[in-house]
Structure formats: structure tokens, C-alpha cells
Amino acid sequence: MKIVGLDVGQKTIGVAISDDFGWTAQGLKTIRWDENNYQSAKQELKSIIDEHNIGEAIVGLPKNMNGTIGERGEASQRFARYLEKHFKIPTVLWDERLTTMAAERVLIEADVSRKKRKKVIDKMAAVMILQGYLDSKQ
């Protein structure tokens, strides 16, 4: 059983999956979607869950720096409830403060162009969310 990590934004969802042992996270893809229409991502999510035998989802929870949950955090909570209801998999909300900034820094250090960074930043943030979760379990 694998675990999926999701970095949920207004227009994109970064997706990462674990290996079978739950040791490492690998970036899979970025799904384009409309946050106001969950159906816009439903088929792609279903395909990923089915194809990779996903048994759990880790959803990034963007907290404010003081630990409170704002509008984006509430949107992630709604999305996690949607996953549980429609795909029948347990979800864990994982503090993702600064993951996008860290992902950007890694890509800059790897000398990835700005144009290419824009295409993979959400997927890389999903990897960092999922890897953080996996590391906490060991």
C-alpha cells in the first residue's frame, strides 16, 4: 500500500507518492484543477489512487506562521474531507509551512530555470510534505 502526498492550491494540486515501504517520496505530477469545482480533479485523483494502490493521503495544511489556520488551511481541510468521503481513504493533514519556499530553494540550487520551476514547484512541495510525514513515522 502506498501513500499519496498532496500540495493543494487554488489552480493546481502537486502529487507525490511513496514507495511500497513508505520510506521515500517521489514526485508524480501536477494536476490542473478549479478549486471551486472538485469534479475537475476527481478522475485524475481516482486514476492515481487506483493505479498506485493508495491507502492513505497526506494533505498539506498551510498554517500561518503563528500556528493558526487561515483561509488556505480551511480549504485544505475541506479537500481532505472530500478525499475521505469520495475515495474512502484516510487522510492526514500535515503542516506544510515553508514547503513551497524550500522547494523553490532546492530547484534554484539545482539551477532549474524559472520557467521549468513554475511547472514542477507544486509537485516538489508535495514531495516535501510527504517525505516529512514519512520521516516522522520512522
Note down, in words, how this protein is organized:
It is found in: Cytoplasm. GO terms for molecular function: hydrolase activity, acting on ester bonds; nuclease activity. Its EC number is 3.1.-.-. It comes from Aquibacillus halophilus. The protein is an alpha/beta fold. The protein has a single domain (2-137), classed as YqgF/RNase H-like domain (Nucleotidyltransferase, domain 5). It has helices at residues 39-51, 71-87, 99-109, 114-137; strands at residues 2-8, 12-18, 25-32, 54-61, 91-95. It has a five-stranded mixed beta sheet, with helices on both faces. Strand 2 (12-18) and strand 3 form a beta hairpin. Helix 3 packs across helix 4 (114-137). The longest helix is centred in the C-terminal third of the chain and has 24 residues, at 114-137.
How would the blueprint of this fold be written?
Elements: E1 2-8, E2 12-18, E3 25-32, H1 39-51, E4 54-61, H2 71-87, E5 91-95, H3 99-109, H4 114-137
Parallel strand pairs: 1-4, 4-5
Antiparallel strand pairs: 1-2, 2-3
Keywords: Cytoplasm, Hydrolase, Nuclease, Ribosome biogenesis
InterPro entries: RNaseH-like_sf, YqgF, YqgF/RNaseH-like_dom, YqgF/RNaseH-like_dom_sf
Organism: Aquibacillus halophilus
